Backbone:
């Protein structure tokens, strides 16, 4: 009796995962894993680990480099929301409604879900309305959120109660 040797596929990543989005865009762009690693300046084997589901959370800088190399929006790559083409694949003549994506702050918050406290997120959302914050991208928002979080952690609240 002969036994057939079957090749075992990589474990299937969960639906809508980072691995699925990277695999989809590699196929769409007809790019190899090594091609992406070279374009995004990643170490050898990095993309393979993403596709296997071993690398599910990437730093904002790594996410930006991969998004740029795949020519997709940062938000879509990080969260699966929005248009995969984002602003990279849209001409300036396209209608504004077709180009609208969520605010970059919200993309950073969604990607790092649970990292920052509610007061930190609230302070960042208040800051987002200022002119200084107009051109920040998700990786920069992650840094802003970290700075706000550090500043808030230095504030010591005492257990004082108001006179009743």
Residues:
């Amino acid at each position: 009796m002969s036994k057939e040797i079957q090749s075992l596929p990589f474990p299937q990543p969960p639906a809508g995962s980072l691995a699925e989005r990277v695999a989809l865009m590699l196929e769409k762009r007809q790019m190899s894993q090594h091609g992406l690693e070279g374009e995004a300046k990643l170490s050898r084997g990095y993309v393979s680990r993403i596709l296997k589901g071993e690398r599910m959370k990437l730093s904002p800088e790594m996410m930006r480099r991969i998004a740029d190399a795949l020519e997709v929006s940062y938000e879509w790559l990080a969260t699966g929301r929005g248009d995969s083409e984002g602003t990279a694949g849209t001409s300036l003549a396209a209608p504004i409604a077709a180009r609208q994506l969520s605010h970059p702050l919200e993309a950073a918050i969604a990607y790092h879900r649970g990292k920052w406290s509610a007061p930190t997120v609230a302070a960042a959302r208040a800051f987002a309305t200022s002119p200084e914050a107009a051109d920040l991208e998700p990786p920069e928002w992650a840094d802003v959120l970290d700075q706000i979080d550090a500043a808030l952690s230095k504030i010591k609240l005492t257990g004082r109660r108001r006179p009743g």
In short: Confidence is low (pLDDT under 50) at residues 1-15, 87-101. The CA atoms of residues 19 and 51 lie 5 Å apart.
